[in-house]
Amino acid sequence: MGVLANEVELVTELCERLKREKEKTKSKTASLKILDIGCGTGKLAVYLSEETGCAVTGIDPVRANVEKARMKTSSVTFEVQSAEELTFATNTFDFAVSLKALHEIQNPREALREARRVLKEGGKIFIVDWVGGVVQTSSHAHAKKYFSSERIKEALSEAGFVNLSIKPNKEGELMLCEGGR
Ligand SMILES: C[S@@+](CC[C@H](N)C(=O)[O-])C[C@H]1O[C@@H](n2cnc3c(N)ncnc32)[C@H](O)[C@@H]1O
Question: Which of 84, 99, 124, 159 is most enclosed, with most CB atoms within 10 A?
Answer without folding.
Answer: 99
